[in-house]
Amino acid sequence: MNAYDDLMAFQRETSALGQIAGRLGWDQETVMPRGAAPQRAEEMAAIEAVLHARRSDPRVAEWLEQADPQDDVARAQLRDIRRTYERTVKVPADLAKAIARVASTAQGTWAQARADEDVAAFLPVLKEVVALKREEGAALAQGGDVYDAMVEDYEPYTTGSQIAKIFDQMRPRLVALRAAVLDKPAPQALTCKFDELVQMQLSQKLATTFGYDLNTGRVDKAVHPFSSGSGLDVRITTRTSETDPFNCFYSTIHEVGHAAYEQGIDQAYVLTPLGQGVSMGVHESQSRIYENQLGRSRAFTGWLFEQMVEAFGDFGVADADTFYATVNGVHKGYIRTEADEVQYNLHIMLRFDLERALMAGDLQVNDLEAAWNDRFKADFGYAVDKPSNGCLQDVHWSVGLFGYFPTYSLGNVYAGCLYQALCAAVPDLDAQLTKGDASGATGWLRDNLQCYGGLYAPRETIQGASGMEPGPEPLLSYLEQKFGALYSL
Fold this sequence. Notes:
- Its cofactor is Zn(2+).
- Zn(2+) binds at residues 254, 258, 284.
- Broad specificity carboxypetidase that releases amino acids sequentially from the C-terminus, including neutral, aromatic, polar and basic residues.
- By secondary structure, this protein is mostly helical.
- The protein folds into two domains: 3-144, no CATH class; 160-486, Orthogonal Bundle (Neurolysin, domain 3).
- Helix content is 63%, strand content 3%.
- The chain contains 20 helices and three strands.
- It has helices spanning 3-30, 37-55, 58-66, 72-88, 93-116, 119-141, 146-151, 160-182, 196-209, 245-264, 280-294, 298-312, 320-327, 344-360, 368-380, 406-425, 429-434, 439-448, 458-466, 473-486, and strands at 219-221, 227-230, 233-238.
- It has a three-stranded mixed sheet.
- A hairpin with a 2-residue loop joins β2 (227-230) and β3.
- α8 (160-182) packs parallel to α20 (473-486) and α14 runs antiparallel to α16.
- 43% of the residues are buried.
């Protein structure tokens, strides 16, 4: 074996251990007994210590120096291994272990505080998380911007200032569209109750309709829907509400977008750096285009309407056109994951600004709830009514995912570019979706984006698939056209 082969063999073992850590996280969110939380924190800390040691092993530097890549795939593998190694060696092993331990503990504390509407119960552990993440960010930044170092974990080669520039372009048109839409009469809302077992059955059908392979995946329930894993074990979760089946159905389609990306990657890349989505922004482009441009389209909602009538009987919506308006209704609300396409990105911009301030030390944890509530009132025009609808609604900060939130909106921007290209490439897309056939769309995404995994950098991945430099114009035009027609603007 040569240096490259030795390095890749070592990397595959490291990746396998990383998958095990991910499975522990899946278990914690789905079926782990609540009383196991303290032990799970120690387990997560232990495996993080092993992973950190492997990722910073001096032999990795030697192999990188000696490796002679023979093709573009090998060069991309070395690029990503080198990037991970250089970042890992900057973070002390004890710090990485401490972050893993406190994040596991904080997750359980957050879930209980959210259930109890008790911000004060969450703040002490959040202070620990923020302090440790600031320390990590400073180590990674090496004198540069701490938040930029955080973003690099989720969207490589992107900075906070670049994201802020994109958001500044988007905000005025989103605010104007939101105001115009909310000035119009609201569409019909659902008023029936929907059996939650039947929701899960239809949810499973939707998952397979969008190409999710249940032979290497499964659908479970969790408080906060998510996708987990890569390669041959890619799991998703959803949630149910007796009065809101759309929460279940569109959470499922959203997470299937993530999972289909992982399942669609070239199997030759399994357990290597290229064997997973290249960034969270690109990942989110898949979940958002599945959920919104495809799943909430007039064509697909016509088919979904028929499926719901078959599953639930008459649920008070007269026809497919009314149903389409109901699915895409724009309403006042608090929850990011339940937000419509018009308002979703405004939720992300709020979180982006707050977490950037937290990492910079301009906002203290004790002041977070007030800052959130003030910003929400300014952006949305009404007050937060309870903590679970405010600063306790998301799991991300409890587990240290600072720099993650803006990738949700980057994903929307990327999805806008991809959808424009998809419509040109598959001219009978709507005719297919009307029949509940999403294979034309999902196949195009698999062949033009998903199969490459991490082979290319994030923006290169989007540009290669869409044929354009990523920017917000296609998304904004799509939103203005869709909701302009829906609300007769």
